[in-house]
């Protein structure tokens, strides 16, 4: 931060953070950044932002001759950009955009002096900015930013004594690779003797990340020692999510658990695992006792209630203004969790349909259901092991359950034969393509048909039906092909004895790089060895 902006008071920073968060409420912007201008240099410094990924935050400083400042100095008004390809000046602010980055940018003037710059991005639900409707809302926020700057004036910078110029050593540029998305979530493992082993199976990574971001925002807007979330109506043990700026001592973690359980409905899991994250895990843990609590019930349309709770160490009640801020953030968190729950119910519905299809085939192909379910379970584990996104994991799960439904369109007497003629073998090899016919009227939210079609392609190009090779084979298809082969090896048939797991592992390792993706083979072997 520039010298004249280092002395920003905490009340001013908090007020500015509150004001730019209104961009989400009023304009639907999922990201916003506020820059203040240093009158001595003309550069703009970032003072508050929200919504940007931790790995791709907005730039800290905008130089005086930066193209975006030149653009806004020329415009001298709010600028709506829904098609950024005509504005290369905005490219540095488009990093990390999943689709097209859309902008609403407002220069902020006070009595003719350019004081600040407000950059908003990405309207919610992939929408666009409507200048006629949203400019007045943005200007109202800018006016309040000016009032805040006048209410908390920034002291002028005191010139530092000019030190002697040091010798300049020219160093090569540092190369800093962006961390993977998983690095956004830093998990503190609870003490082994204090809590059961942390199991994150019931909370998808996107849920975790969204909660960490929401909890961090809450702690900035409403100072709190910790924020915890307990998900309700779970069919499996889901961890209690706990966020804090500083690490919590073991005693404080127990307090969080005790207070959460006191608010939980009767019959809830009395000993849930804990998944914790702290902003500065390297610092000394907080100690003491919580003196002030604020429980928040996130009510869902279906009747469920997720429990959010804020904790303070000091005996200071949450003011009405702070409670209003908590409600605003909680509303967004609750909406997101409700949408995730709805998505999970859709997934279960597709699984139910898949199981019903398999059950209908048990009379003709008795082994199909068991084989398909075992393949799906291990494929799901392997997809998670290689860090596929949640949607991709679900696509693999459903595709693996249905990967052999094309055999229902074949003569089952052919499938029972120990040896096939070349003509019969060619017909059997059509079952991935036949699956497309069988499933074409089921509108899956994922490309299930594409994954199933290619689940017999080989890494070296020797598979079928299209002879795809290497990375050209969809990842889901590669996973199912490997897992299905392993499951077939360890399963007994009327014509072949089952291999032992060790023999099957040796066989898939032998075929790594020939029939199977060698990276997936290594990951599957790790999963299998962990179960021995």
From TrEMBL:
| Residue intervals of the HD-GYP domain | 346-532
Q: Which SUPFAM superfamilies match?
A: GAF domain-like, HD-domain/PDEase-like
InterPro entries in the record: Cyclic_di-GMP/3'3'-cGAMP_PDE, GAF-like_dom_sf, HD/PDEase_dom, HD_GYP_dom
Q: Which residues form a coiled coil?
A: none
Please, which domain of life does this record's source organism belong to? Bacteria
- The identity of this protein, by name, is HD-GYP domain-containing protein
Taxonomy of the source species = Bacteria, Pseudomonadati, Acidobacteriota, Holophagae, Holophagales
């Amino acid at each position: 931060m520039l010298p004249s902006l280092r002395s920003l008071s905490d009340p001013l920073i908090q007020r500015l953070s509150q004001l730019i968060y209104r961009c989400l409420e009023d304009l639907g912007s999922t990201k916003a950044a506020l820059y203040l201008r240093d009158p001595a240099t003309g550069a703009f410094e970032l003072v508050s932002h929200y919504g940007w990924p931790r790995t791709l935050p907005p730039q800290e400083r905008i130089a005086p001759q930066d193209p975006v400042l030149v653009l806004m100095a020329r415009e001298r008004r709010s600028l709506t950009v829904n098609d950024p390809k005509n504005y290369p000046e905005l490219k540095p602010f488009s990093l990390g955009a999943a689709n097209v980055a859309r902008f609403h940018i407002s220069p902020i003037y006070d009595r003719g002096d350019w004081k600040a710059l407000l950059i908003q991005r990405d309207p919610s639900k992939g929408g666009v900015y409507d200048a006629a409707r949203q400019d007045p809302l943005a200007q109202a926020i800018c006016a309040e930013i000016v009032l805040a700057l006048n209410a908390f004036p920034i002291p002028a910078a005191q010139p530092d004594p000019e030190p002697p110029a040091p010798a300049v050593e020219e160093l090569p540029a540092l190369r800093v690779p962006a961390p993977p998305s998983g690095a956004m979530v830093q998990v503190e493992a609870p003490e082994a003797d204090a809590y059961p082993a942390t199991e994150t199976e019931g909370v998808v990574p996107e849920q975790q990340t969204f909660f960490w971001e929401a909890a961090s925002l809450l702690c900035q807007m409403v100072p709190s020692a910790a924020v915890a979330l307990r998900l309700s109506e779970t069919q499996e043990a889901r961890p209690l999510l706990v966020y804090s700026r500083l690490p919590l001592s073991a005693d404080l973690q127990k307090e969080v658990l005790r207070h959460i359980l006191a608010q939980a409905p009767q019959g809830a899991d009395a000993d849930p695992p804990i998944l914790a994250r702290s902003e500065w895990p390297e610092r000394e843990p907080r100690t003491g006792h919580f003196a002030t609590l604020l429980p928040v019930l996130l009510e869902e349309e279906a009747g469920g209630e997720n429990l959010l709770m804020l904790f303070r160490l000091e005996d200071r009640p949450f003011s009405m203004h702070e409670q209003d801020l908590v409600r605003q953030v909680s509303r967004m968190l609750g909406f997101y969790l409700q949408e995730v729950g709805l998505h999970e119910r859709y997934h279960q519905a597709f699984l139910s349909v898949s199981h019903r299809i398999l059950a209908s085939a048990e009379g003709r192909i008795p082994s199909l259901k068991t084989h398909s379910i075992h393949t799906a379970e291990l494929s799901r584990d392997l997809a998670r092991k290689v860090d596929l996104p949640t949607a991709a994991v679900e696509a693999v799960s459903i595709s693996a359950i249905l990967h052999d439904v094309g055999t229902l369109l074949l003569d089952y007497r052919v499938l029972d034969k120990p040896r096939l003629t070349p003509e019969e073998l060619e017909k059997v090899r059509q079952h991935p393509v036949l699956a497309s016919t069988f499933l074409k009227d089921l509108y899956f939210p994922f490309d299930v048909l594409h994954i199933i079609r290619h689940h017999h392609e080989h890494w070296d190009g020797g598979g079928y039906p299209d002879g795809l090779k290497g990375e050209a084979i969809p990842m889901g298809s590669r996973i199912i092909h490997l897992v299905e082969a392993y499951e077939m090896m360890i399963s007994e048939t009327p014509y072949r004895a089952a291999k032992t797991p060790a023999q099957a592992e040796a066989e898939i390792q032998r075929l790594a790089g020939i029939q199977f993706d060698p990276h997936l083979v290594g990951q599957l072997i790790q999963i299998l060895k962990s179960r021995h």
